[in-house]
Design a protein that fits this description.
The complex is a heterodimer.
Chain A: E1 2-11, E2 16-26, E3 31-35, H1 42-49, E4 57-62, E5 65-66, H2 72-78, E6 79-82, H3 94-100, H4 103-106, H5 112-124, H6 140-153, E7 158-162, H7 170-185, E8 190-194, H8 198-204, E9 207-212, E10 215-221, H9 222-225, H10 228-235, E11 241-244, E12 247-250
Parallel strand pairs in A: 3-8, 3-9, 6-7, 7-8
Antiparallel strand pairs in A: 1-2, 1-4, 4-5, 9-10, 11-12
Helix pairs in contact in A: 3-6, 5-6
Chain B: H1 2-23, H2 26-36, H3 45-62, H4 66-72, H5 76-81, H6 86-108, H7 114-125, H8 131-156, H9 163-184
Classes of the chains: A alpha/beta, B mainly alpha.
Chain lengths: 261, 185
Amino acid sequence: MIRAQGLRHSYDKGSTLVLDDVSVELTRGCVTGLIGPNGAGKSTLLSAMARLLVPDSGQVLLDDLDVLQAPAKEVARRLAVLRQDARVTARLTVVDLVRFGRFPYSQGRLTARDHEVVQECLDQVGMDRFRDRYLDELSGGQRQRAFVAMVLAQETEFVLLDEPLNNLDMEHAGATMQLLRRAADEMGRTVIVVLHDVNVAAAFCDVIVGMRDGRVVAHGPAHDVVSAEGLRRVFGLDIPVHEIDGRPVALHWAIGAAVQV
Amino acid sequence: MLVLVGIVLGGLFSSLSSFASRLLSPDDYLTLQAVLFASFTTVDVDLLLACAVVTALGCAVLWPLLRQLDVIDLGRERAVALGVDHHRIVTRVLLVVTVLVATSTALVGPMVFLGLLIANLARQLVPTHEHRWLVLASGLVGILALVLGQFVVLHGLGLAVPLSVVINLVGGLYFLILLVKAVRL
C-alpha cells in the first residue's frame, strides 16, 4: 500500500498552493487512475509520491517505508516513476535506456538476469525491433514506449506514470493500458497513473482518484467516480455519462454549461 | 550554460588580475605576468610530484562515480528515480573537478579552451554514453593534443608562438563553430 499523509506543497514561495493537505491511501495490486482538470495537482502529487519533489509538509509511506527518509537505492527497487518529459540529452539507443532500469540492482554492471529482464520488457512494449535505434531517431510514441519499458525493467512493486498515453496513437495507447493492467493482474504490481481521458480511466482502472484545486475530491471504484455526479465534483462540468458494455462512458465532448461547485 | 558562466567568471578574474597588476611596481608586475600567463615550458618541476599525487587522488575519487554519472546524464528526476543521490554526486564531482583544474592551473597557468576542446572531441570520437570510456578518451585526446601541439610549435612555427596561444586559438575557433552549429539547429 502507498499512503500520502497531509501533503502540502506550494510553488512561487507559497503564493500558489498546488497540494492542499492531500491524504490518500492506494491499495496494492490495483490500477489507480488520477484524474482532474489542468492544474489540479495530479502531477505534483505523483512527483511527491515518487520523492522527485520534496513537499512543504506531509509524508509518503510505502507500507512502512518513508520515501523521503529511506535510502534512495532501496526506494528505487520498490517504486518506479515515469514523468511526462521524454527529452534526453545523452545520445542513447533504446536498449541503453532500458538497461538503466536495472541500475538500482546492478549499479551499471549488468548480470545475465538483468539482460533477461531488459529483453522481456523490450518485448512487452513491442520495441525489440527498434532496440539499437537512437532515441532521437524514434517517433514520439516509440520513445514513450521505450521509457515505459525502462520503468517496467525496474521491477518495482509500485509503478507511477504521468500521462503515459501522451503521443500514443489508439493502438499503442490501448496496448499500453493493457500492459499496465497485466502488470497489476499478473505481476501483482501497484500501478498509479495520471490519465487525461476519463473514459480510458473508467475502462482500465480499478480505482479512480479525482483531484481539483489541490485536493482529493473523489476517490472510489471507477464506476462511482466516472458518473455524472462524480465528474461534476472533479471537473465542475455537467457531463452526460452512459453505460456501454458495463462500463461508464462520459460524453465529454457534449459538455453542458459549467457549474459552480 | 556552465560554459557561459565559466567565460564570464574567466573575464572577471582576468580583469581583476590586470587591475591588480596596475597597482604593482613594474618589477613585480613582470614576475606576476610570467605566472599569470599559461605556459607549458616554464613548469615548476618541484610541483610535479605534489600535483601527480593530487591528480591520482582525484581520479581515485572520480572513478567509482562514473557509472552514476551515466545515470545523471538522463536528467535529475530520472537519476533520483533510479536511486542515485543526485545532489551528493554532483557536488562531489564538481569539487574534485575544481581541485583537478586548480592543480593544472598551478602547473601551467590558466587555459580557457583546452578542456572544452578535448571533452567535445572525445565525445565525437568515442560514440558511447558511458563516462568510463569518455573520461579515458578525454585523457588520451588531451595528451595527444598537447604533445602534437608542442611538436607543431617546435617544428612548424619554430617556437615563435607559445603552445598555450595555439591551443586557445584552435579551441576558440572550435567553440565558435559549436556556437554557429547550435544556432543553426
